[in-house]
Specification:
Blueprint lengths: L4 E5 L5 H11 L4 E6 L2 E5 L17 E10 L3 H14 L6 E8 L13 H15 L9 E2 L8 E9 L2 E8 L3 H4 L17 H12 L8 E5 L5 H8 L3 E5 L6 H4 L4 E4 L16 E4 L5 H14 L6 E7 L9 H9 L5 E5 L7 E7 L2
Parallel strand pairs: 5-6, 5-7, 9-10, 9-12, 10-11, 12-13
Antiparallel strand pairs: 1-3, 1-4, 2-3, 4-8, 7-8, 13-15, 14-15
The structure holds S-adenosylmethionine.
S-adenosylmethionine binds next to helix 6.
Length: 350
Amino acid sequence: MPARFLFTAIQAGAERALKNEIAREHPELRFAFSRPGFVTFRLPDEMRGDFALRSVFARTWGYSLGKVGGAADAQLASDAWRLVGEQPPDGPVRHVHVWQRDRPLPGDEGYDGAADELARSVGALLVEQEPDRAKLPKVNSVATAGDVVLDCALVERDEWWLGWHRAQAPETRWPGGAPTIALPARLISRAYLKIAEALEWSELPIAAGDRCVEIGSSPGGSCLALLERGLNVTGIDPAEMDAEVLAHPRFTHVRARAKDVKRSVFRNCRWFVMDANVAPSYTLDTLDGVLTQAGARPEGLVLTFKLTDPALAEKLPQLAERIRRYGYRRVRMRQLAFNRQEVCAVADRP
Ligand SMILES: C[S@@+](CC[C@H](N)C(=O)[O-])C[C@H]1O[C@@H](n2cnc3c(N)ncnc32)[C@H](O)[C@@H]1O
C-alpha cells in the first residue's frame, strides 16, 4: 500500500510557519496532526514516486505509518513492527532513529542528555523486537545515503509515531534531523553549534587556509568553529571578542560596525558569514554594501535571518530571490536544529 501520510520533525513553536510554508509550496498536502515539534500531512491519493519535500522549517521528514500507544514499552515496540509490516518501506531497515519531540538540544537550557538516553533505550527495544533478525538495524547513528531508516518520534512517553525515509541529504541522515556535534571544552556561544550544523548540512567546500569574514562575530563561537577547521578568520563586531578567539594566530578582530570598515577587509574573502542581531532587510543591506561597494566576491555566504516577527517567515522566498540577484544561483534555507527564532541561508554558485 503506498504511503498516505508524511511526518515532519520541526522546532517546537514553528508549527504555524511550517503549515503556511507547506500550503504555499505543496498545496497538494493536507495538514493532518500537530504537536509542538511534530506535524503530519496527508498525501494525495495519486502521488508520483519521486516526492521530495521543499521546506525550510522541517528538520527532516518521511512517510508516516501512524502511531502505537500504551504503557508497556515492549508491547509498543512489537506493535511498531506490526505497523511496518502493514506498510513496508522500500527496502530493508538499516537504521532506527528515535527522538523525543520538543526536546532540549546540547547548548539549550534544560539539556541533560536524559532524552537521548530514553531515545537510545527505546531504539534498543525496537531492535530487540525486529522480526527479521538477518541484519539488525543500528540505533541513532548517522545513516548512510541510500539506506532506509525507521523513524520513531516519541510524541508522548506512551505514544510513539512510526515512519520511514530513505537517507539522502545530510539532514535526512541525522536522527530527527538534528546532528550530533561534539561540544568544545568551553562553549563560547551557541553560534558554535549553528555554524557547525550549517557547514555539515550545506557541505560547502571550505578548506584549511581559506579566508572567511564574519559580521556579528562577538563573542566568537562561530569564529572558533571556523578556526578549528583551519580557516583564516576576520571578525567584524563593535563588541568584545572572547579572549581565546582573540589570541588565536589566524584570527583578526575589526572592532567596528560593518558599515564603518574599510573595503580592504573583504579582499580575498572566500566565505562570508553574517550573524548579527538585526532585521533580515538590514542583513541584506549590509550584504549589498559588501558585494557592491566593497567589491567582495565571496564564493559562499552563510547568513542568519532573525525571525523577530513571525510574519517574516512568509518573506523568506523574497529574501532568497534578493540573494540570487547577486549571482548566487543556489540559495538554500533551513531552520537549523541549533537555530532559535531564526533560519540559516546558505548561498553559493556550484
Ligand atoms: C548573535 S550575536 C553573534 C554571535 C556570534 N556569531 C558568535 O559566534 O558568538 C550578534 C552580534 O551582532 C553584532 N552586530 C549587530 N549589528 C552589527 C553591525 N552592524 N556590524 C557588526 N556587528 C553587528 C552585535 O554586536 C552582536 O555581537
